[in-house]
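yo

u said u wanted the structure for the complex thing, so here. seqs first:
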Amino acid sequence: MPELPEVETVVRALRREVRGARVEALRCHCAAVVADREAALRAALCEGPFVEFTRHGKYIFMVMAGGSTVAVHLRMTGQLFLAGRERPPDPHTHLEILLVDSRRKLVYRDVRKFGRFQVAPEGAEGFVRRKKLGPDALAVTPDELLGLFCRTRRCTKAVLLDQRVVAGLGNIYTDEALFRARVAPLRPARELSAREVRELCGSIREVLYAAIADRGTTISDYVGLEGTPGGFQFSLRVYGRQGQPCARCGTPITRTVAAGRGTWYCPVCQR
DNA sequence: ACTATCCCCTGACGGC
DNA sequence: TGCCGTCAGGGGATAG
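structre next:
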């Protein structure tokens, strides 16, 4: 499931490979993945070349020369990759963005169809405000986290998954950051000391940068813009590792449910 | 205002 | 073998 490191990997590749390209045509095979009318998305994408690609949390923003912005969210199983024009669309291919002066196309594939392309008339910053997204997980400060942590009754994991608190963390990196900071996922957020919140904030940044360096995590569906999987799945210390020994103390990793999500942690190291 | 729950969608998996 | 029920999960909608 694409979280911040996977989205950042795609955005960096889009900048490198697609910035400056002009859209020749949009083929839509499934209306469900377009939040607006298909014609509105087509008008935005075809109005001029891609000027820039940006990201906030798990959202990708495609900024067009004409001033339009398109927000893309990959949700659970969305894939955005470049392919040769001759590649036939399979049943899970929902959008094809044909690029001018190139034999390539930008393909959107999504088994579960949870992902969305959405025109953002107010631009990226306005979109972030409208969705009430918190600061990006790579930019959030300990003070910002502390301010929200002491105002809630929820457990720490639930708070970290809340995109209005901090944007970009999903189930995998929340568990991994909590492990690195030695904080138990079910601890009420308001009980964390300022020192623990600082530690957690640092752990979030560390694990996200480490995952970006490995081009993200591929558990099942994620691929980068070139269609290749990430490599960070081999460096996960708790996520999905029920029964396997903790890397720090050897205690078997425990699985529980927090905030309705499968949650893995070390019952000894994490307090 | 805050929090929990349901829903979308499809593939994987377990039970019989 | 094959059928059917259950589960997974991000975020929006809805209900307490």
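The longest strand of chain A covers residues 50-56. Residues 32, 76-77, 92, 110-114, 152-154, 158, 220, 259-260 of chain A lie near DNA strand B (CB under 10 Å from a C1').
cya
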